[in-house]
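Re-running the complex after MR caught last week's input typo. The corrected sequence lines follow. Everything else is unchanged.
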Amino acid sequence: GAGVSQSPSNKVTEKGKDVELRCDPISGHTALYWYRQSLGQGLEFLIYFQGNSAPDKSGLPSDRFSAERTGGSVSTLTIQRTQQEDSAVYLCASSLADRPNYGYTFGSGTRLTVV
Amino acid sequence: AQRVTQPEKLLSVFKGAPVELKCNYSYSGSPELFWYVQYSRQRLQLLLRHISRESIKGFTADLNKGETSFHLKKPFAQEEDSAMYYCALTYLMDTGRRALTFGSGTRLQVQP
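Corrected-run output:
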């Protein structure tokens, strides 16, 4: 597609439920990143995929968070047993190569609300 | 460890006034710095990169290694500049890959 597509745009879930957030990067972008944007907290790095290499999961806040990227394209971020502190906007970005100075293209995000 | 600090959560100026959004960083390696902008109801997007030495929408930013700063400046603010601005730094992760770390952001309000 023309840009990075994320779905759903909004998700309200009950505490304790699992959620899946989807990211469809720009075609041909080998690098894909997930960030979390919380009010007053800026952007928090979560996980990074580059090509077929093992992902860098160093930013995931707990083992309730996981992500996968199938076929080097679409990525899914899964949050198990959601907690209220998981409420945030989850942003996906992709870039042409493993060099952030090429510029990231961000999706419009998924706003997750845990009630 | 790498860190980007944006000391102001909110900066409010009048139209036509000069603007300076502050950004300080700490990083032991060679820094690559960026400014990203998010307008209301729009996606986060790259505004400018220090390596390009460019002026975008009248904004400039100069990397000052002595002061470890990368402040964003514009001589005459416009109402359409109202947005959230994030300063970002690339750093080398333990995996040998590079990633971006962001500051907490500054909301710029330009009043008429």
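None of the earlier attempt is carried over here. The mean pLDDT of chain B is 91. The interface with chain A takes residues 6, 9, 32, 34, 43-46, 49, 51, 86, 90, 93-95, 97-105 of chain B (CB under 8 Å).
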